[in-house]
Structures are given as C-alpha cells and as structure tokens.
Design brief:
By secondary structure, this protein is mainly beta. The chain contains no helices and eleven strands.
Length: 196
C-alpha cells in the first residue's frame, strides 16, 4: 500500500494467500485523501505458483464530517424584535443533511458550507444540532449546544439610540430591553439618536 500520513489503516498486507482484503481506512485530515494498493494475483496449480499482472487499486477516503455552532443576540431595528443569529459551519465534502433545533430547521447543502440563520426569539433559547451527516457520514461528535440570552450584555437602562428616537424600540437600549420604572436610565450626549 502507498503511505499516506493522513489515513490510518487497519488493513494488513496480505501475502500469497488471501481471498479478500478487509479493514478500515480513516481520514484524519479535512480533505479527501487517496491510498493506493497494488494487488498481484497468483495462480497455483500442482504446487507451482505463477504471478499475474499487478493492478493498482486507488481508494479515495472521504474527509470526515465536522461542525461548529455559534450564536449571538441582535436586534431588528425596524420591529424591535430580538433575533438570535445562529452560525453553523459544516466541514467535509459532500451532501449535507441535518436538523437544527428548536424549530425543526432543515439543514441541506454541500459541504464545506457555512449557514447563518436569523431567528426571532422572545425568551432565552438553546440551539443544538439534532442530527447531521455529510455524504452519509456523521461527525465524530455533534457540536455543543449554544444558548442565546434575550438580555444583551450591555448595562440596563443605557440609551444608545442605534435605530431611531423611539423609547419603546428595544434595539435603542444597550441591553435590548426597554427599561421599566425600576431601572435608572442614562442618556449619554454621545447617543446616535436622542429619545422622545
């Protein structure tokens, strides 16, 4: 067999007495790899063994499926709706088939590919892959789930006025939450828009 540092083989060389070659080839890289086996057929008759013409068998070992999942909170300025932006990166080579939860979002395409989903949320939401295959092969492990909190990391009551001057548009507040009467409000002179 040809040596390929990116492929781990459990296939042993078979010398002079094999009816079948079996084993597993595992690609440890992120792209398809090839391994070449030279098979020399032998014919035996009456104790005499005659070699035939060697044949090269080239095996392509697919790249393993990989996936990463990330998410962040943003705000739709027009509606003030909180939006989870979920980014799924799928590696490998071939047809993608999967399911993103919650919402039974079907994931299809051709790897490698990056998917970006904008999903309105009204409560803290955890996103996860329920399933994923690339060209029929699942990754060694699905990525960890990610949780998007509906409270942005900014301080409560800080007006930023990013979108417009509407007090009740959550996108105008640093933490994407319109303050109630229990929150002290700060409106800095550097705000993009001033509230009305």
């Amino acid at each position: 067999r040809s040596v390929n540092a990116n492929v781990i083989s459990t296939i042993n060389n078979c010398n002079n007495n094999c009816n079948a070659i079996t084993g597993t080839l595992t690609n440890t890289s992120t792209v398809a790899q090839t391994v070449t086996y030279t098979v020399t057929p032998y014919y035996s008759n009456g104790g005499v063994s005659c070699p035939g013409t060697p044949v090269d068998v080239i095996i392509t070992v697919k790249a393993p499926a990989t996936a990463t999942l990330a998410a962040s909170l943003s705000c739709d300025g027009g509606s003030g709706t909180k939006v989870a932006t979920v980014v799924l990166n799928v590696g490998g080579i071939g047809a993608i088939s999967g399911m993103l939860q919650p919402g039974n979002i079907v994931v299809t395409g051709t790897a490698p590919q990056t998917f970006t989903y904008s999903i309105p949320i009204s409560a803290n939401t955890t996103f996860s892959l329920a399933s994923l295959t690339v060209d029929g092969c699942a990754p060694a492990a699905l990525p960890a789930s990610v949780t998007v909190s509906i409270i942005a990391p900014g301080p409560p009551g800080l007006w930023v006025g990013t979108v417009d001057n509407d007090w009740f548009n959550a996108c105008n507040w640093a933490n994407f939450t319109v303050p109630d009467n229990s929150v002290d409000v700060t409106i800095p002179a550097t705000a993009v828009n001033f509230c009305e």
